[in-house]
Amino acid sequence: MKRSHLLVGTITVGFLSACGTTNNYLTTKTKTVEYYRIYDVKTSMPRSTVAKAASNGLGRNVNNAHEATPIPSSGEVPAVAGRFKLVNPFEGSKFAALAGGGGSIGFRVATCDGAVWTAKATRTVAGSNDLTITMCLFQYKDGYHVDQYAVFTKQEGGLMQISRDMANAMVGTPEEWTEKTLLDVMRNIRAVTGANVALLEAQPEIGGTPWLDNADAPNDK
Predict the structure, then answer these.
(1) Is-cis flag, bond preceding 204, omega within 30?
(2) Nearest in space to 147 (alpha carbons), one of 36, 51, 48
(3) Residue 89: which CATH number?
(4) In angstroms, how far is CA 65 from the centroid of its own chain?
(5) pLDDT grade for 4, boundaries at 50, 70 and 90
């Protein structure tokens, strides 16, 4: 009798566990993830060369990009590199309060005040994964800082998840192609300029030194 109770209990626990897994797989979720990277690029190359290398590295992986080369506010190269900032243009408004509710990072924009080159690019994969990237190139006395800010939104679960899994198998997960997009910029800068490139800050953290991997043929045309 005890054995039959034990068998029934085991089957019930297994069924409920499988049921919970299935329910989680079918639950439609929207996830938003932020990334940022700050690299130090020690080189005496002119900013036009470094900006072009960054632009071509970015162009490998995005659908479209808007770039600008602002005129420096001062004729002197600063001793310390600038840094990107996250601002909310609707801060203090009702819209900002609603957008910043639970399960949301709110409405934030990366700004590049003082940068000698900026870019904003987007990439869409499988119709439900969207990546937006902002890049800032800051010149200083020893070279440059490259600030990268990225935010991607992806859909998970629901009846479309099988199609997404198939797409991810072919082109990679949103996390994988976000990392590749960010890293290819630094790999191309390093390949074109021969600069010493070091990571200063990152979120999420990066394991190893993948930006030092050999790039494909430098995309400097």
Answers:
(1) yes
(2) 36
(3) 3.30.530
(4) 14
(5) very low
